[in-house]
Amino acid sequence: MKDIKSRFLKFVKSKKINIFALFLLLSFTILVLNKLSRTFSNTITFSVETINLPETYVILNDSSQKLNITLKTYGFKFLRYYISKPDLILDYNDKLHLTDSSFVWSSHRSYSKINEQFDKDIEIVSVLPDTLLFKYDQNATKDVPVVLEENIKFSPGFDVLHAFSITPDTVHIVGPEKIVNSITSIKTKSLELEDVHLDIDQNIRLELPKENKLIKFSHHKVRLKAKVEKFTEGTFNIPVTMINVPSNLSLKFYPKSVSVSFYTNLSGFNKVQAKDFKVECDYNKHVDNQSYLVPELIAQPEAVKSAKIIHQKVEFIISE
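Structure (tokenized):
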């Protein structure tokens, strides 16, 4: 057994095996070249691409369309299609017929255009299917608002006085009418910030629907800006005004004024005045068997970010 193994290893290491392998490789190469030089037929599946479609239309199903084309040519020519298959171009200007719901392509009407996309020594034996239907939709345009998704936490005593500034605050979208009409807003990527005490100025990407490639968006990101300031609280006593009291009634109410607390930036605190607040009680909103009204804050200065009434009841007595 050892003797046979030893002889085999010597044979492998000898020049005889190298010569044998060389002749084997040469024979295989000649066989392949011989077959590739012959003419034969084969069916290849091609994807299609539509071009020169009017801008008012969009094709909905072009990615699913295929053509099975039987070709007759040399094996060398077939080799390129097994390595990389180009898409076949279907030109809208080349006799595509328009119906109420589809563009119709026919191999009989467009045979010459298909034939031009192959080399002259390649013969097209057959094209299947002989008709392709491309469902379409009309393009629509629309401007939709940008909605900020944020979780911003400010440092104690800091805030923004006015709303965040988003530029642009709308996105122009173009696409199939049904899809465009279903989009009512575009959200931003969630912005997470903590311990904010400086002005905000940064770009945020939009949360665009990736699953639909038929929609075009004017923007993929927006710019967020906000002026961050030091804030403080204050309190005023604001007189209560009664409205919608019937002319035949006389009301006595208490308290005559209510405390209103407000929250504003430190730099504008001294500009806030009591006369710019207005509190009302609407008699039309009173509930039977209740002897009080709920005061409402009707007006407040623009410099105030938020305000609330501390006293939530105004008692009244009717005297005729």
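The chain has a mean pLDDT of 83. Residues 139-226 form a domain with the RNA Polymerase Alpha Subunit; Chain A, domain 2 fold (CATH 2.170.120.40).
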